[in-house]
Amino acid sequence: MKIAEWFAELLGGERSRPAVRYEGALYDWGFLADVASLLDHFLSEHGIDSGRTVALILRERPWSLGAMYGLIATRRPILLVAPLQPDTAIAHDVTELSVSALIADETDWTRDGLIAAAAGAGTLGVKLTGDVDDPVRIVDGCPEVGLGKHYELPVSTAVTLLTSGTTGAPKRIPVTYADLGRRFADPRPASGGMTINSLPLVSVGGFFGAIGTAIRQRPIALMDRFDVWTWAELIREHRPVRMGAPPAVIPMVLEADIPEDYFESVQVYMTASAPLDIGAADRFTEKYGIPVLQGYGATEFRGAVTGWDDELRKRWGWEKRASVGRPFPNVELRILDPDSGRELGSNETGQLAVWQDTDSSGGREWLHTNDLAKIDDDGFLWIVGRTDDVIIRGGFKVHPGEVEELLTTHPSVTMAAVVGVPDQRLGEVPVAAIVTNDKVDHDELVGLLRVNLPPYKMPVRIAEVDRLPLNSMMKIDRNAVRDLVTS
Known about the structure:
By secondary structure, the chain is α/β, with parallel strands linked by helices. It is built from 14 helices and 26 strands.
């Protein structure tokens, strides 16, 4: 399927068809088409034609989505910029990227230094106003494309997505039109309902979710910032059979004590993007009767590479619930010794490497992740931790995920994070931060750990906190946790 042509057809189709629900209002495809058309007009007027690269600060708003769809339809490669960054970081991005145009929400154009950064880079500023009658304008302070060279992506690129560090330091991963065509080869409309988005659109899950819901001609519900009650109310209203959200949402639901009838239509909760707290997942299943199944993927892989189908869920759903499923077709996995690179056998823990059979993979190139994992005798993948999270305590390795999972088996612990803090004698030692739903008996908790862990894996301290700090992807921010427990 030719993705650009498909989006051009969608934007030129029935205008009254619902497209986006946002803050209680329903925006139709006519509004998205107007945003896309005006954006195309302004860019073409300034010489930024098909094939020219532009930057987009992508927010969870209808006009941002209309801009993204329009850029895909006109084959202008997109450099996505995450909005949840400090003003200085956004301005630095714009200066370093030096693209022909920057498209951003009216909110973002009020950021300190952004207009000056765009003007200095010779970047045309385009404002998305959110006004139904006047949705796109040129920014006064940067009204032209400056002279000099501007950054250009290959014309085959649809978008670049910023990684979260699965295979190393964060970097921009190109997603080509061919990648999108392979992923969405079947454009049949969905049977109805609404996609309820729970991820930032700049993430791999959020981006592919927005593309997929448009291609399948379903509307999508967007939230500026994730709110567990708003999300639950959307599920109660639209009654999906499957729901998906990051693992961190599960303890949020339990803490909020959302009534069971909100989720009565749901048959399975699909999750990915971060380690699953299996204790919280079991409490969620016990309360709502909904199994929780996790998959595994990354921006580097252009999405998920393992997961579950209905047959696997029926046969293995309880026994293997803490795994991330089996590899999808055309995916191969290896577990390697981190030191020697030797391939390990079943149930041995090592560094995960992934290969996908796609035209863009460059042959038999294996991507080496920073994830520690094992593959069991039945072919299920289990994520144990991360090589870069490992705590070295006097020469002994402590994997935080193992300790965190054990902590959350205690009924009073809803979330847990274990981090390494400096120690003069041992180099570093593990410290745990926990969120509880009740007064926890610390002696009982320590006893649980002592029965199940060798002494070197025992946290030297367990700190109760109101909340664990999360990043924009609702993953635990370990640096912030470390600051929290050492302050």
